[in-house]
Amino acid sequence: MALGWLLPTIGLILSLGGGLLEAADRLVVRRPGSQGKIELQGEIREYRGEEVSFQPSDDGPVQTWRGLEIVHVEPDRREPHQRGRQIIAQDPVQATADLERALAEESRSWVRREILADLVRCAVFQRQFAVAGSRYLAVETSDPETRHLEVVPLRWNRDPASRDDRAAAVKWLRSKSATANLLGASQLLLDQEFTSECEATLRRIGRGDSLRLQPLAQWQSRRIEAFSGRPRLSDLRYWQKSFDQLPANLQPGPAYLLAEALDRRAESALAASYWLRLLTHEAADLRLMVESVQRAADALQTAGQTSEAAALRDELDRRFPELAREAVHPESQPTRKQSPNR
To answer: What is the pLDDT of residues 187-210, one digit of tens each?
Structure first.
């Protein structure tokens, strides 16, 4: 895939009023040992990994904030960037056009990474995993410790990969990049031609040096088992302990798998509670989130909680009317065990 679009269009930036617009970024921080928050205005010069380099608007010395000191970051977004990220769920095609324009106009590397992360969301929404993966790899190339790990475009349900996604995944699987390997294995794990290779790849990454990728690979390797209905409840309790150790921004995909496995063991109410984690944690994959809320409503209906199920469906109709009208894929529906082996 050509990456020329990743280069900033400097001439377009300079055409905005004859020069660069003065930044008005917002940074909320908390000093070590303090519960209070401080809101700062100025220019975020860089945000790489867990470190922010910040120039206060009063021209004071450049400040460096790290890790838990950083509470919230809000860049000074140009209009196409702001508009694009607001309409991803309503009009992903227009959102993509707006965000690509924003990318062309943006020179700040850390904001460009944010725009690329939003473009990953757009591509995943449209089930264009080849595009999403290429854009995510561009983010990681720019910042290997990127804070945008939650948008890494992994496949969590059983939908088959498209021809383009499959072709990209084969290349990723044979790449020297562990992240690309993870992307490829995620797309091809349920493809019988590649299952064994993908399982070996996920085991390697799950035991590898990257503490960031380890848990994602370990959870991806559980997909086949989750859909099979094989895990005993004792196994799922171990999964739950593993799930609880995940940071909140990485929980949506694993929550989907836990819910799937629990529902297949006729644990409807508990399954619903995990499907709803995709809503409470605002999963980057909006289609998977809507599917999960639909599945949660069905599970609650099965458990006799009809009013709660109706409330969830009403919430979906209100927030995602187009997606809510789409039927859940038949192959996603579980065949529950009548007498689960506990």
So the answer is: 999 999 999 999 999 999 999 999
Domain assignment present for 204: yes
Our CA angle for 37, 40, 41, nearest 5°, is: 155
Query: Are 232 and 294 in a shared domain?
Result: yes
Q: How far apart are CA 262 and CA 274, in angstroms?
A: 9
Q: Which residues are CB-contacts of 15 (< 8 A; sequence separation ≥ 6)? A: none
Residues 215 and 292 in one domain: no
- Which residues span the domain enclosing 206? 154-221
Q: How far is CA 179 from the centre of its chain?
A: 14
- Count how many residues are written for the chain: 342
Residue 51 located in a structural domain: no
Last residue of a domain, one of 221, 249, 264: 221
Q: Is the separation of the CB atoms in 54 and 70 below 8 Å? A: no
Intra-chain end-to-end CA distance of the chain, in Å: 49
Q: How many domains does the chain have?
A: 2
Nearest Cα to 265, choosing from 232, 292, 219, 298? 232
Q: What is the pLDDT of residues 103-115, one digit of tens each?
A: 999 999 999 999 9
